[in-house]
Amino acid sequence: MNRTKRSTALALAAGAAALALAFTGCAPSSDDGGSGDSSAALRVWAGSQTPITANFNPFAPTVLHAALGPIYETLFFFNKTADEAPTGLIGDSFEFNEDGTVLTVKLKDGVKWSDGEAFTADDVVFTFEYEANGYADKGLVSAEATDDTTVVLTFDSPQFTREFAILGSTWILPEHVWSQVEDFATFTDENPVGTGPYVVDSVTEASYTVVANENYREEGKPAVKKVQYIGLDANQSAQDLLSAGELDWTGMFIPNPDDVTANGIISTINTPQDPTVLYTCANAALGCVGEQTDVAVRQALNVAIDRATIKEKAFVGLTGDISPTFALLPRDEKWLADPANAISPQSPNAAEAGSILEAAGYTKGSDGFYGKDGAPIELDLISVDGWTDYNDAAKLIAEQAAEAGIKVNASTVQWQEFSDARQTGQYELIMGGVIGTSVADPYQIYNDWFDGKSTIKVGEQLLPGTWNFSRYDNPVVNDAVAAAAATNDEAAKQAAYATIQTEIVRDLPYIPLVINATQTFTNSKDYTGWPTEDDLYAFPPAWGASAAGVILANLTPAK
Amino acid sequence: MKFYARRITIYLVTLWATISLNFLLPRLMPGDPAEILIAKMQRAGEVSETTIRNIRLILGSGSDVPLWEQYLGYWGRLLHGDLGISVTKYPTPVTELIANALPWTLVLVGLSTVIAFVLGIGIGAWVGWRRGTWVDHLVPGTTVLQSIPYFWLALILVAVFAVNLRWFPIFGGYDVFAFPSGPEPTLAFLSDAIYHGILPAITIVLSSVGGWLFGMRNMMVATLSEDYIITAEAKGLRPGRILRAYASRNAAIPSIAGFSITLGFVVAGSIVMEQVFTYPGVGKLMFQAVQNNDYALMQGVFLVITITVLAANFLMDLVYGFIDPRARHNA
């Protein structure tokens, strides 16, 4: 109790050292300002480790979380938790032409940069032409400002599927600042000028603080005037701080969330996003070796797995149920062609696994394991040492497969070995993740993970931005992905996705397991306006780029 | 004089060898920093092609330069006091990172090492002196504390004293909420920093005092059976004088040698303590550097550690003669 009083006293007297000293000596005992006090900062841990280095350059790999969303903004905000149209941040509306090669963006009027300069269409043109954004290599033919609030972007190919990349993850830069930057690679941008609700106040090795942007376009926002991002090295510290009510917002995994919500201050929300799967090196034509290259083995494994047990035992019941189509349900409901594919089987079926294998010509040996021509099926399953949930799941899978007569050897490897294995395709099975899509559309997964152009033959490294670790290359899928990319017509896209889904549900180059939990903890006692189950207006964790700015601008201190 | 010249030469050769190893070892590690970073970002969600391209541009390994040229360049920069730029904390110079972390480590780990040593030697001497009585039970007691995995001990102490009783803060080198603009030269800050150091210091002392105590106690018991102690007792010297001037002084010699080595390692910080308490220090720099294949940072930290350990050894070599007259005579 004494400590909080002193902290408050000190916070009030920040900057005036001598004054602070006097306050500490005689802190008035009636003072008991909670953290909902308008002068107190909202405390966030977005995952930064100490020591913190001041770097608000959105192109830097070590950029601090507050730069993306709270300071720099994209044109539009895409809520990745729901199937809804993007909302305008500094953009007002946008429109594609018929074939998707010309994108016309209308901007909001009267927006100012945090240094008081007016934001205009020229800034947007500058951003899209800026070298670090690399749009020249991505087919941008021209970017033109037709008037102060209109930008026309012309591309050499349809951009329907890149809508999010262009409008939702390109950080708009102030031309009057960034045109002076000599080398974006070494620029640390310690006093960033953005259009977002916050500006940088101070940065130390232990934390950094952002304060309300006086020039923010929305009157009266942000209501929370000061936000302090802290650095922590251990998840346990964050959990302890939450329990003690000293941390207001974070996104992290806590196996038993009741422990921290018991204090009546912290609320939690779980928004599963990213699939966990078994990568299988599936394509013998590209050089994969092992019995998993036989589709029957993958299908048998798929039905032999007890997903309900894996969810309970390895992921403490916090994961979501996965659809073998990789559409995130219920968000991507409209893209699910066949309702039968809504969810992967949750309970194991050893008999079915057996009959699939027998139909494919495998026979059960005397040791109880299936094999062909005297050679038993034996698959090596690796997971990264220390990712304990994955290690546990791998062990469970090995046991469950054994019950269905498939021999799986689970082992753990160092991260580097895992990375090399999946990059070069020299593996049989890997416990791995798939990146969930940022919009309500599974296209990005189909394109990056299933398309033949996103892979390379075994022994070579995948190209940057391609994730087809399974080496899956199916002309039917490739054509359908290309067809989906070229159209903005919902029915045509649905038809293409239906084709893809039929193929991948049968072929199973990635055997779906669960959808990873994404937990967020918020102080709902002192602040209101957080995303909730009923009003999931943004992806809630504190580390979410763009969404963090939207959430912060929406918060108000509780009275 | 010849003795010292020989020692100095040996130390110079060792220094050269360690610095060269320091250059070579990180380069034998597999993987490159850009890949690690991309994969890490990928775990948190979609990573755009542009980001990946930029990361490779910024962190791409300049591995087409031949190794020996890198080696020469390494020495050249080293002699100018330039340890390079950290990749993990891009683009902070390594010297700055180490300079900021070192004071915290030196004060906290240094002080608690000294406290643990003094306590261990003091109590060890006393326990050895009173051998065969109830105080012998202190030995297993403290060794149990030492054998508990450090991180576990630290977590328990945090759970009890910081989270439940709220006597101590949960994390940090100072109250980051009260001092959002960082360390400042005021009394309030100083007392806050001391307050934040108490619990980490206690964990270090608790987990290392047992070793000193055990070693000292056994040396004490051995020394007490020496003829000169019996002589001293026969002469009728006061027990207190025998304890301090005769037994303890001789029994402490091996511990003092060990202590100097330990002091050298103080600069390495305490990786686990710094993780558990999010305490600033050198240990976490080393940890993060190894995790992220941050060669420059790794080399910088290892360099500081090797030099200090060598220096501590060297000093010990020089002063050992003063502590132990026998060493002086043999040399």
What do you see in this structure?
The complex is a heterodimer of chains A (559) and B (331). Chain A is α+β, with helices and mostly antiparallel strands and 559 residues long. Chain A folds into 3 domains: 5-71 and 196-268 and 520-557, D-Maltodextrin-Binding Protein, domain 2, CATH 3.40.190; 76-178, Dipeptide-binding Protein, Domain 1 (Dipeptide-binding Protein, domain 1), CATH 3.90.76; 275-515, Dipeptide-binding Protein, domain 3 (Roll), CATH 3.10.105. Chain A has 16 helices and 23 strands. Chain A has helices at 2-12, 17-25, 121-129, 163-168, 175-178, 235-243, 258-261, 295-304, 307-314, 350-359, 388-403, 415-424, 443-450, 475-485, 490-507, 547-554; strands at 42-45, 76-77, 87-88, 91-96, 102-107, 140-147, 150-155, 198-203, 207-212, 226-230, 249-251, 266-270, 275-280, 363-364, 370-372, 375-376, 378-384, 407-413, 429-433, 510-515, 519-523, 527-528, 556-557. In chain A, the strands form 6 sheets. In chain A, strands 8-9-10-1-11-21-12 form a 7-stranded mixed β-sheet, covered by helices on one side. In chain A, strands 18-17-19-13-20 form a 5-stranded mixed β-sheet. Chain B is mainly alpha-helical and 331 residues long. Chain B folds into 2 domains: 2-79, no CATH class; 94-295, MetI-like fold, CATH 1.10.3720.10. Chain B contains 15 helices and no strands. Classes of the chains: A alpha+beta (559), B mainly alpha (331). Chains A and B meet through α1, α2, α6 and α12 of A and α2, α3, α5, α7 and α12 of B.
